Structures are given as C-alpha cells and as structure tokens.
Amino acid sequence: MKAFDLEDPFTLVGVGLDEDPDDEALTDMAWAVVEEYVRLGWTGDQIVRLFHSRFFQMAHQILHVKGEAFVRELGAAADRMRADVQEQLRGVG
Question: Which pTM value belongs to this model?
C-alpha cells in the first residue's frame, strides 16, 4: 500500500460553489453519477439508494431538489443502460 503523502495530487478535496447549481447543472451532475456507477456494475436500485444516502452529499442534495420521481427514473435508466450493454456484449461473442 502506498504511504500517505501530503503532496499527493490525488488527494480528495471538497470544494464549495459560489452559487447553487441550476436545474440543468443538477441534471448533468445526476447523469454523471449514474454513468459512473453503472460502469462500476451497480444496479438501478443501488444507485437510487446512493441518492438516499447522506454520505453521498451531492447526490443526496439532487434528490432533495429534483425529487424522488427524478431519482427513480435515473435508476430505471441505469438498468436500461446495463441491459443495452449486456445485449451488445452477447452479440459480440
């Protein structure tokens, strides 16, 4: 395991925004979260639970601003993405 280094450029750093993101920015951020976790193999239900977790502050804020229906649609879209990729992979082999 790599030793901790104060000069490590990969250290996570939280940043604040000068103003709240608008609706379009929140939607873009939500899709970025979905795409990232779909690529990691998460299901739609797992992604919906992520948005409900206070640990994932940005996703949790999106839930509060955009609403439950929006987040549920993200979960359904995640499952469709996974199914499309799995179908494409079956066709390759």
Answer: 0.75
